[in-house]
Amino acid sequence: MNDAMNATNSTADGTTQAAGSATRESQDIPTLVIDTSFGATVAVVGHEPHYEPDSRSHVEKLEPAISHVVEQAGLTPSDIRRIVVGTGPAPFTGLRAGIVAARAMAFATGAELLGQNVLEPQAAWLAQGQLPDGRRHVTLAVNDARRKQLYYALYEMVPGDPVPHVLIDMDIASAGTIAHKVNEWLRSRDTPEGGEIVVDVCGTGAKRYFSSFQGIVALGDLHDDSCLHVAGVQGPRIFAQLAAAHHAAGDPCSSEPLYLRRPDVSEPAPFKHVTEEPNHAARMERIAQAEAAGAAHESASQNASQGASHGEVRR
């Protein structure tokens, strides 16, 4: 058993070392970050990001913004060797714009394309700025999903691993439901509620639903921000480093969008079979009798009419 545990630890250490090496290597690769999960953020890693908060206009402003940040970095599009695109979770229209732009540029330049979800960087960003206080900090990363819902996941940074560990899988729900699920997770831990574990909330929409998040029994700090557009140069770097770490670990870095929302329409249920009522046979017999009586009456009327006609002819 010890040999198996040592082998497992060795594998984990090897994966962590590979991820760390890839993180350092990613700093030397000219990398462009594009994310339209909330507004639009574009940056060349190592330089200040360009942020467009208006989701209604970022589609037409995205291409000029990309050209601007690449030029400001002293590069040309062909110099970009890696593109990291935010894959959400986020609403459909805005998210699609950034992914389409990233795919088109990767195709045109031959740059490597990596997808990165936008919740993980929140946990990594908070961990970098936290001072040790003897408590176990976990991060509830959120993003506004509109319709009074949030995308969310619960993460924890573990020393030596650049990628946050998932405690609650990514999903979409109301803030009240999210708080309930976090409390359920807290109750399943060995640490008593309200004790050493602290749940920090970070992401766009966190402040809007502050009253609901107050229901989390171990609530810590709340940040209504995205590291991509408020952390300066550090934000895009964290974003790109996480994507590089996933790539080095062999994780899929697909650029497929994460919508998560269930369809508003569903396939209709199959038609119900018509069932016969209990007195169906009797009712059908009465109908047949009525039809027969009607036919007999019509025949009698025709005979009477013909008889009257014959009488008139004789006269």
Automatic annotation (TrEMBL):
<dbReference type="InterPro" id="IPR000905">
    <property type="entry name" value="Gcp-like_dom"/>
</dbReference>
<protein>
    <submittedName>
        <fullName>tRNA threonylcarbamoyladenosine biosynthesis protein TsaB</fullName>
    </submittedName>
</protein>
<dbReference type="GO" id="GO:0002949">
    <property type="term" value="P:tRNA threonylcarbamoyladenosine modification"/>
</dbReference>
<feature type="compositionally biased region" description="Low complexity">
    <location>
        <begin position="289"/>
        <end position="304"/>
    </location>
</feature>
<feature type="compositionally biased region" description="Polar residues">
    <location>
        <begin position="1"/>
        <end position="24"/>
    </location>
</feature>
<dbReference type="Pfam" id="PF00814">
    <property type="entry name" value="TsaD"/>
</dbReference>
<dbReference type="InterPro" id="IPR022496">
    <property type="entry name" value="T6A_TsaB"/>
</dbReference>
<feature type="region of interest" description="Disordered">
    <location>
        <begin position="1"/>
        <end position="27"/>
    </location>
</feature>
<feature type="region of interest" description="Disordered">
    <location>
        <begin position="289"/>
        <end position="315"/>
    </location>
</feature>
<feature type="domain" description="Gcp-like">
    <location>
        <begin position="55"/>
        <end position="157"/>
    </location>
</feature>
<dbReference type="InterPro" id="IPR043129">
    <property type="entry name" value="ATPase_NBD"/>
</dbReference>
